[in-house]
Design goal:
Strand order of the largest sheet: 6-7-11-9-10
Order of helices and strands: EEHEEEEEHEHEEHEEHHHEEEHE
CATH topology of the largest domain: Uridine Diphospho-n-acetylenolpyruvylglucosamine Reductase, domain 3
Number of helices: 8
CATH class of the largest domain: Alpha Beta
Bound molecules: flavin-adenine dinucleotide
Strand content: 15-25%
Largest sheet: 5 strands, antiparallel
């Protein structure tokens, strides 16, 4: 029996620490529970909103008039070099558990907050590797048709910070299978901790933010060349870092209320106290306008703004 609660505070369920309450809120573990929750939302006439680790969302300052479906499934198992994990499993926990079993290859993803379901949806990545490099297949539930399907890596249509699931929010990821390699557990654990230390050094860890606020955009040739000349590195897939663009338009450290474009990593809009969603949005718009005016580039949000 589902336990649907009302007016549940949401801010502390997100890494931003912003947001008011959910009109309705439910924790789900199984596909059956998700189906039940969706049927309940339909009957009530409210939209369902999936929330997992809450590390890539900006919630509104007002009550969210929806049923927040919080995926908390956390079971996983290993068979040979393959990991099968429920969508709500914390990604770092899985990476650490794999290392305990002499399995690795994905250690550079350590420290990306949130769940494996969230990581698959956004094809999360860091320092080169992305989750797509390890996913074998994904099980998901189409909440419109009530059908489950297993999609192989190709069908997930992964690309930079993108997957099939981003274009199809009616699909809820319930499970993922990941192929790992044999690894020396000592070296693997050291690489995990070194990766987290590197993230702390770069100020991209433990920040009250939603990670990179904007996707690194594809830039016109002359902007790519300017970036390459200034930074002495090649732009990847014709993209330049959004953080570099923000710095170029003089908005590194810019502030609206308690929302700040981080000094160390300007593409992180951080909550520097009691920031509101309105302040974050105003700062984001300021950044978008300035980057568009200076470079003709339309920045797109990576974080999900509700
Ligand atoms: C400090 C910090 C550092 C970060 N560093 C990185 C980084 O290095 N690389 C990177 O790629 N990202 C990074 N991020 C962003 C974030 O951690 C990732 O996007 C993460 O994968 C989101 O997972 P989540 O479980 O928290 O998703 P949530 O924030 O809960 O949800 C994000 C979106 O995915 C949807 N969603 C969640 N679960 C499911 C599911 N099971 N099925 C379908 N849709 C679902 C939600 O509806 C929502 O639209 C960082 C964030 C923070 C706060």
């Amino acid at each position: 029996m589902l336990k649907i609660r009302e007016h549940v505070p949401l801010a502390q369920r997100t890494t931003f620490g912003i947001g008011k309450t959910a009109r309705y809120f439910v924790e789900v573990r199984t596909e059956e529970e998700i189906k039940e929750a969706i049927a309940w939302a339909r009957a009530k006439g409210v939209s369902p909103v999936v929330l997992s680790g809450g590390s890539n969302v900006l919630l509104p300052d007002e009550e969210l008039d929806a049923l927040v479906v919080n995926v908390v499934s956390d079971d996983f198992s290993f068979a040979d070099t393959e990991l099968e994990a429920e969508a709500g499993c914390n990604l770092l926990h899985l990476i650490r558990e794999a290392a305990e079993r002499n399995l690795g290859g994905w250690e550079k993803l350590a420290g990306i907050p949130g769940t494996i379901g969230g990581a698959v949806r956004g094809n999360a990545g860091a320092f080169g590797p992305e989750i797509k490099d390890f996913v074998v297949r994904v099980r998901a539930l189409d909440i419109e048709l009530g059908e489950t399907r297993e999609l192989d890596n190709d069908a997930c249509d992964f690309s930079y910070r993108h997957s099939f699931f981003k274009d199809h929010p009616e699909w809820i990821i319930t499970r993922a299978w990941v192929k790992l390699g044999k690894a020396d557990p000592v070296a693997s654990k050291e690489l995990i901790e070194e990766t987290i230390r590197e993230r702390e050094r770069r100020h991209i860890q433990n920040v009250r933010a939603a990670g990179s606020f904007f996707v690194n955009p594809v830039a016109p040739k002359e902007v790519q060349e300017l970036f390459e000349k200034e930074k002495g590195m090649k732009s990847r897939e014709g993209r330049v870092p959004a953080g570099w663009l923000i710095e170029k338009v003089g908005l590194k450290g810019a502030r609206v209320g308690d929302a700040v474009a981080s000094e160390q990593h300007p593409n992180y809009i951080k909550n520097d106290g009691e920031a509101t969603a309105a302040q974050v949005k105003e700062l984001a718009q300021k950044i978008k306008d300035a980057v568009h005016k200076e470079f003709g580039i339309e920045l797109q949000e990576e974080a999900v703004v509700l």
